[in-house]
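::Amino acid chain::
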Amino acid sequence: MAEQRKLAIFALSNKGGVGKTMLAKAFTDYLRHENKQAAIFDTDGDVKGLLKLYGVQGDTENFINNPMTGVGYFDMQVADDRENIVNATEAGAEILFFDTPAGSIRKIFTGLRSAERFVRTFNAEGYEVVLMLLVDPYDDTIDGIQTAIDLFGESVKYVVWKNMAHAERGDFVFFEPKSVLPDAEPMFESPSGEPVSARELVETYKGQVFEIPDMPLRTNARIRRHYLRFREATMPGSPLKPNDRALARDWLSELDRQFAEMLKVLGA
């Protein structure tokens, strides 16, 4: 039997404001709550969304936060920091998770010599590279799927998360096929030149699709105002009102279920 590879998972979105950091925080919550052997890294420059919630006190500029218990930090877009992407494999964790800078997927990986070399280096250290792509109904986020495939082809695994925050399923006309939404508008082409939807393109590469459920804005606003980790927000005695705690609990429970399914599909 072939040795099962560990996973290096990169959270990506093709532009800011799509909810990538929200997904990254929820996934971090899940990994820590389930006691997964995971090394988690915030590589998102000055934003430091994960580090501020899950890191430990210390000099964040010198990369001293423990990624196995808190959150490691470096800036993926700074040339002198880029080697830390691969050096993260020294942690030896079953799962490496990177919250990357928001913005153009192509730009994020511009500093690498080549996508092929990037993946090959991780593979040599025993890791399968997974791109966790976040999309909303807008075409510029969905276009990131094609960008990622152009860069990495069949050398990585793809997981797409549809952000259902304040969206209906019928809004994803640039993602779903016509068999699901009759008024869908396929954005991409198959190798034979036929129009295909984003979902069909992802599935061609054996990718999986999941959904971030909607959370009421007022609930999330209170979580952010009180600077809570998601699981903290659901606990009795948290600053949230009981109804908001219940809404957050249902939201997190559904995400936990999907995270478990995602890792199962990925072979973790």
Q: What stands out?
A: The chain is about 35% helix and 15% strand. Residues 242-266 form the longest helix (25 residues). The domain at 6-215 is CATH 3.40.50.300 (Rossmann fold). The chain has a mean pLDDT of 90.
